[in-house]
Structures are given as C-alpha cells and as structure tokens.
Amino acid sequence: MSLTKLSEVISKITGLYFPQERIHDLKRGIYNASIDFGFDNHDEFVRWLLSTTLNDEQIKKIVLHLTVGETYFFRDVKSFEVIRDHILPNTLSDIRQGNRQLKIWCAGCSTGEEPYSLAIWLESIIDDIDFL
After folding, report:
1. Are the beta carbons of 111 and 105 closer than 8 angstroms?
2. How far apart are CA 71 and CA 1, in angstroms?
3. CB-based contacts of 57: which residues, under 8 Å, 6+ apart?
4. What is the pLDDT of residues 63-100, one digit of tens each?
5. Burial level of 81, CB count in 10 A (0-12/13-18/19+)?
6. Taking a C-beta distance cutoff of 8 angstroms, is the pair 102, 69 a contact?
7. Sequence-ordered list of residues with C-beta below 8 angstroms from that of 117, at least 6 positions apart, any chain
8. pLDDT digits (tens, 9 = 90+) for 9-57
9. How many CA atoms lie within 13 A of 34 on its CB side?
10. Is there a contact between 65 and 33 (Cβ–Cβ < 8 Å)?
C-alpha cells in the first residue's frame, strides 16, 4: 500500500492530515504504534489497521503515536518568524486603519502555552494596539 493511501485512511479514522511533506511523521508514528499494538512487523500492522474496525481506545492509542505530545511556551520559533515577517505587516496596517480586527486561532493547544506565548509575544512587539 502506498503511504498516500495510508495517509487517507488515517485521516478518515483519526481526522489527522498527513500531506506529502509530513509522510515521514506518519511512517514514524505507524512504526511506533505497530510496536505498541504488539506487531513485530509494521507492514502486518498496516494490513490489520486497514482491515479492522477500530474501537475508541485503539483510535486514541494510534492518535497518541501520530501527534506531538509536547507543549511549552514559545515552541516552534519559526512560526513566530513567519507571522512577524509575512502576516503581521499587512494585517497591522489594516488594523491601524480600523479596517479589521486581529483574530488568531491556535489549534491543538491542550494546556494553553501556545496561545499565551503568542499573546505575550504580540504584546511585546506591537506597542500601539491594545489587545484587551
């Protein structure tokens, strides 16, 4: 089976999306999940995965292997740089002219460190906009 097809199946089962640039993450997660499920061969695990109706516990177990299990303040500095260099310049211009509001959605932030980091960071680099 192709990894693209496996990615589609995993997406249907878990709601997680693995585009081509994240296929390595999918392979690593499936390999680790196969061990956790007691398979000696991850190809056998993939065949089992594709032929079985998974229960909630099994889905949760797979998701744990396919997601980032860490959260901390100011994680992924590159994201902050992209926001600063490519998103904020035009957005701030529109905000200052009263044409738009700044709304940010932080998906998958389990305990809140990521959105708090973003709020703290924005408050420190933009001094002429009240965020509250």
Report:
1. no
2. 33
3. none
4. 999 987 777 888 888 888 999 899 888 888 888 888 88
5. exposed
6. no
7. 73, 74, 75
8. 899 989 998 888 889 999 999 999 999 999 999 899 999 998 989 999 9
9. 18
10. yes
